[in-house]
Amino acid sequence: MGQVKKVVLAYSGGLDTSIILKWLQESYGAEVVTFTADLGQGEELEPARKKAELLGIKDENIFIEDLREEFVADYVFPMMRANALYEGVYLLGTSIARPLIAKRQIEIARATGADAVCHGATGKGNDQIRFELGYYALEPSIKIIAPWREWQFKSREHLIDFAEKHQIPVPKDKRGEAPFSVDANLLHSSSEGKVLEDPDVEAPPYVYMRTVSPEEAPDSPTVITIGFKKGDAVSIDGKPLSPATLLAKLNDLGRDNGIGRIDLVENRFVGMKSRGVYETPGGTILIAAHRAMESLTLDRGAAHLKDDLMPRYAELIYNGFWFSPEREMLQALIDKSQEHVEGEVRLKLYKGNVIVVGRKSGKSLYSDRLVTFEDDQGAYDQKDAEGFIKLQALRLRTLGARDRQ
To answer: Would you say 104 and 37 are in contact if contact means Cβ atoms under 8 Å apart?
Structure first.
């Protein structure tokens, strides 16, 4: 397996990463450091400490950290400034969490003198790429251990046998094949595999964990106002909130109104298509509000350039290139565009829909004098449009004349 003295494991405390922990000890003979990140997945994390201790991990080698504010402020919000959607649909909830986890693993490796890092991503998915591109970008010489690409386990039964052999507790609900796999954080939850593998079969209701169905949502709308400054949401209904608190509040509002469900087939970076069911209640509200704020405050050229670049930016995040120079270059452009994106957006949340009903800003570029159908007192001379149109039509007229010959 190679020489490894100490390894930092991304550790959830669940069965799979507990098996990985013991496998690392056996296969590499390495000292293991566990890192468990609270990204708002909604689970109690202290049991992860007890499981790590049960598997022989020293207290000074157990790291459990609340990263929710950093996650939203430094990763989710920069992405939201770009209105990023992968393939026009996916709000990148899993993708955007991986670089932060990778960054902290590398920082912990440096602090503890570890010479390797380890993740629990499979060899078929995107997460292995996201983790490892992050590791290499931040610590080029780091040793990376990817158990799912290395070990000989061929089935769930083999994993269970290994766990029982090493006195790793196996919950009853883990003994059979899981109906689908779940990843969750403060931005979203994603469900993939098993009962969801046939893209022509509707997802069963029990798959949805973060939202009520639109049919069961209230029959009257919920009206909210989101305040923005420099492109970031800073308040709800006039109340200032921290980034993570604000997103959590939007998640509650979206959940209750059936907002944020997406059933999609996406193109993985490794080359295959996969079907997933994603729930992003707060993010769905936030991106609609942000676009409405931009519509009032962002110049046409800047807005259209952002829209041109957004698919490339979203693809970089999806494919794991958060720490790449091209993503940072695009981020600088995007952040420059957000200097005057401030004000308030009023929305109605109703049965799965986010409906913009009002927006205002002290930095607005909207002019009543220019758009009115009434006497505009010389603000716009309509006769100027004739010359403008003729200049725009010049090449079309030239083409038309040639093609009629």
So the answer is: yes
* Assigned domain for 24 exists: yes
Residues 93 and 190 sit within 8 Å (Cβ to Cβ):
yes
Residues annotated catalytic, as ranges: 16, 98, 127, 181
Render the burial of 337-374: b for 16+ CB within 10 Å, e for the rest.
bbebbbbbbbbbbbbbbbeeeebebeeeeeeeeeeeee
What residue numbers bound the domain in which 130 lies?
A: 6-83+94-174
Cα-only R_g, the chain: 25
Angle between helices 281-297 and 243-256 (to 10 degrees): 110
How many domains, the chain? 2
**Whether 99 and 241 share a structural domain:** no
Give yes or no: residues 271 and 355 share one domain. Answer: yes
- Give the length of the chain: 405
| Cα→Cα distances 401→117, 386, 391, 405, Å | 67, 20, 16, 7
**Judgement on whether residues 156 and 218 belong to the same structural domain of the protein:** no
- Its sign, for the CA torsion 284, 263, 92, 20, is positive
Same domain, 127 and 239: no
**pLDDT (tens place) for every residue of the chain, 405 residues total:** 568 999 999 999 999 999 999 999 999 999 999 999 999 998 889 899 999 999 999 999 999 999 999 999 999 999 999 999 999 999 999 999 999 999 999 999 999 999 999 999 999 999 999 999 999 999 999 999 999 999 988 788 889 999 999 989 887 666 666 778 899 999 999 999 999 999 999 999 999 999 999 999 999 999 999 999 999 999 999 999 999 999 999 999 999 999 999 999 999 999 999 999 999 999 999 999 999 999 999 999 999 999 999 999 999 999 999 999 999 999 999 999 999 999 999 999 999 999 999 999 999 999 887 877 676 567 788 899 999 999 999 999 999 999 998
* 229: in domain: yes
In a domain, 294, yes or no: yes
3-state DSSP assignment of residue 13 = coil
pTM over 0.70: yes
